[in-house]
Amino acid sequence: MITIADIEAAQDRISPYVRRTPIIGASRTRDPLPVSASVTMKLELHQVTGSFKARGAMNRLLGTPPLEIEAGIVTASGGNHGLAVARTAKVAGVPAVIYVPGNVSPAKVAKMREWGADVRTAGADWSASNEAALEYARTSGASYFHPFADPLVVAGQGTLGLEILDQTWDFDTIVVAVGGGGLISGLSTAIKAQRPDVRVVAVEPTGSPTMKASLDAGEVVTLPKVTSRVATMSCRRTDERVFELARRNIAEVVLVSDDAMLAASRWLWFEFGIAADLSGAASIAALQSGHPVFADSKRICALICGAGAEGTVS
Fold first, then answer.
1. Are residues 100 and 115 in the same domain?
2. Furthest CA-CA distance within the chain
3. N- to C-terminal Cα separation, the chain
4. What is the pLDDT of residues 164-216, one digit of tens each?
5. Whether residue 183 sits in one domain with residue 132
6. Mean pLDDT, to the nearest integer, of 299-307?
């Protein structure tokens, strides 16, 4: 689907439009994480629009002929990709239509509209919203930006891996939240190209174990239903090309409950004043779970990938 050369090209393309986000140590806390390893957090929630999705959406725009977006951009999103597309359309000066599921965060919808997007609710999960977005693209001529099953989007997300390696090589394990799989596929491709020794650990909700079910089956499977309330991580089926990249690089998938992600989000707010959404806190929830995959790790990088106010409310 993509190579390290595609990610490097994406980095050159999008660098004027995205932020270099900070890393900090998860140290001097009241309630330490229950792992023996030192933990560094990559604060990608400080990215433009509040998540890594700005990278992929911008690379998709800049890699697309201008004539193809004259009628605007349409997508389906659980929140963060929609925000990124809304902002990308604003940069391009074209309209954006975002289809969202019923469980999307109202705060994220409000922000999409502040970016000027036309936000429409369709269905109970992302798959239903995506069908509506595809139909709109067919009838309107708008350019459809898929949140993960797109080489330009995956390469854009992969630039996050290059940035992490440019900031620190001091980790042997990286922990990454998974929704559709575009982030972990791109990021792991970038990291493994330079650091094949690093273990890539995926985190999914127990109510949407899309990648784990596919890895266990040895092929892409469609979940019969999704029960997680975390819209940004809920997806019934990944893409075959994304899956091929992911299964080369993922060492383990850790499943965490929605409540565990909420507790992790509250931990981030209490300990660091970091307002992460539940997907953004998923890596911390995995570290708090006591999963044995972390027993041999010495230095862990935990990706805090999305912003949100869920953990700021007790």
1. yes
2. 55
3. 43
4. 999 999 999 999 999 999 999 999 999 999 999 999 999 999 999 999 999 99
5. no
6. 98
Domain membership of residue 158 as a residue range: 4-52+150-312
Token pair, residue 127, equals 């798959």
Are 125 and 77 in contact by the 8 Å Cβ rule? The answer is no
Q: Are residues 155 and 248 in the same domain?
A: yes
Determine the pLDDT at residue 313.
83
Do 137 and 164 belong to one domain?
A: no
* Angstrom distance (rounded) from CA 49 to CA 77: 14
Structural contact between residues 275 and 308, judged by C-beta atoms closer than 8 angstroms: yes
Q: Are 260 and 136 in contact (CB under 8 A)?
A: no
For residues 119 and 112, the answer to whether their CB atoms sit within 8 Å is yes
Residue type, position 60, single letter: R
Secondary structure in 3-state letters for the chain: CCCHHHHHHHHHHHHHHCCCCCEEECCCCCCCCCCCCEEEEEEHHHCHHHECHHHHHHHHHHCCCHHHHCCCEEEECCCHHHHHHHHHHHHHCCCEEEEECCCCCHHHHHHHHHCCCEEEECCCCHHHHHHHHHHHHHHHCCEECCCCCCHHHHHHHHHHHHHHHHHCCCCCEEEEECCCCHHHHHHHHHHHHHCCCCEEEEEEECCCCHHHHHHHHCCCCCCCCCCCCCHHHCCCCCCHHHHHHHHHHEEEEEEECHHHHHHHHHHHHHHHCCCECCCCCHHHHHHHCCCHHHCCCCEEEEEECEECCHHHCC
Residue whose token pair is 């309107």? 140
- Non-local CB neighbours of 78 within 8 Å, separated by 6+ positions: 100, 101, 103, 104, 126, 179, 230, 231, 232, 233, 234
278-308 as b/e: b if 16+ CB within 10 A: bbbbbbbbbbbbebebbeebeebbbbbbbbb
